[in-house]
């Protein structure tokens, strides 16, 4: 195993190579692409002794951190150390490279998840499948859930979630199919299937506008037992770490399984990186929800714009009020109290709520900026601060 000094020296060499530009782009939604281990604070001196002293200091700190981690591990093994507070901030976990699959923890806020469940519960009906022989939708025991479809950008919450999905996947929102909200209860499931199509009868208009390139599953509720998403042909990056306890029989036999956790999102790419061939390893199953109700929202994303009817940038460019009493409503605090109605791409009082920028014609960067609600962003930051403070208080008590 290489020494810590060797690792530190290697980092120093890398830093020197990038001396002209120390900033590094971090992909949206990701954590951990950059970590300088204190090397950016090294003295810019030709004095070798000063550099050596700085490297020794870094090495000592690294050793201390390693010993602290080892001490925590020993304490947990002996049952003498309290469990660490769970992470509450959004972060992305890579679970497989074959197929490409990722979990975005805390992708949705609890309020967003509850909003989708609330509107979904009013519309759900028995889910259908597409018959590979006829191309028609029909009932099938392979899929026993109940579901409902929603228009793209149908309300401000949905529109903003669609934009965040686009940022995470690096695929434009106009490539997305309408959101589908699903409910599973009392053993309901969706048996093993692929989301992309290669059958000869699938309606031509659908495939002419591209095949399903990626799938994002948003988990809107916790499930007491069952309800996992299983990818039986996936190769786990760390099989031991990716074998959680308490899985249902459906989820424990093969591949990788993801437990539903309210607010989390699962992304896997259904096709090869060029979007030309379906990936057979994306075979997946929605395991039976044995105890508890499972709610999800699915976004299927195509390798081309989907059906060509949705222009989210045009909607985002309109920074205006659509109701005459918007100034009065804003003064009364409705911008924050009733965000689902007032702000966001389809909000009726964006201008009065100062929720957007006025965009010049053709200013795509400004329009993309407006696809997010400034009011909701401030509220989410405030809520995250309260959560972090609460977690810090619990950690201090432990």
β-strand percent reads 15-25%
Number of strands: 16
CATH class of the largest domain: Mainly Beta
Residues in helix, %: 25-40%
Shape descriptor reads globular
- Rg from alpha-carbon coordinates: 24 Å
Look at the helices and sheets and give the structural class: alpha+beta
Helix/strand order: HHEEHEEEEHEEHEEEHEEEEEHHHHHH
Give the rounded overall mean pLDDT: 78
GO cellular component, one term: endoplasmic reticulum membrane
InterPro entries: Oxoglu/Fe-dep_dioxygenase_dom, P4HA-like, Pro_4_hyd_alph, Pro_4_hyd_alph_FE2OG_OXY, ShKT_dom
Subcellular location: Endoplasmic reticulum membrane
Domain Fe2OG dioxygenase: 175-303
List its salient traits.
Jelly Rolls, transmembrane helix, 2 domains, 398 residues, metal-binding, L-ascorbic acid binding, 8-stranded antiparallel β-sheet
Structure description:
The protein is α+β, with helices and mostly antiparallel strands. It folds into 2 domains: 91-310, q2cbj1_9rhob like domain (Jelly Rolls), CATH 2.60.120; 313-391, no CATH class. Helices cover 33% and strands 18% of the residues. It contains 12 helices and 16 strands. It has helices spanning 4-17, 48-78, 110-120, 156-169, 204-208, 249-252, 312-317, 326-331, 334-337, 339-342, 364-370, 374-397, and strands at residues 91-97, 100-105, 125-126, 129-130, 137-138, 146-150, 179-184, 190-193, 212-219, 225-226, 229-231, 256-258, 265-269, 284-286, 289-291, 294-302. The chain has an 8-stranded antiparallel sheet with strand order 1-2-13-9-16-7-6-3, with helices on one face. A 4-stranded antiparallel sheet has the order 8-14-11-12. Helix 1 (4-17) crosses helix 2 (48-78). It is globular, with a radius of gyration of 24 Å. Residues 6-37 have low confidence and may be disordered. InterPro entries: Oxoglu/Fe-dep_dioxygenase_dom, P4HA-like, Pro_4_hyd_alph, Pro_4_hyd_alph_FE2OG_OXY, ShKT_dom. Residues 175-303 form the Fe2OG dioxygenase domain. Its main location: endoplasmic reticulum. Pfam families: 2OG-FeII_Oxy_3. It catalyses: L-prolyl-[collagen] + 2-oxoglutarate + O2 = trans-4-hydroxy-L-prolyl-[collagen] + succinate + CO2.
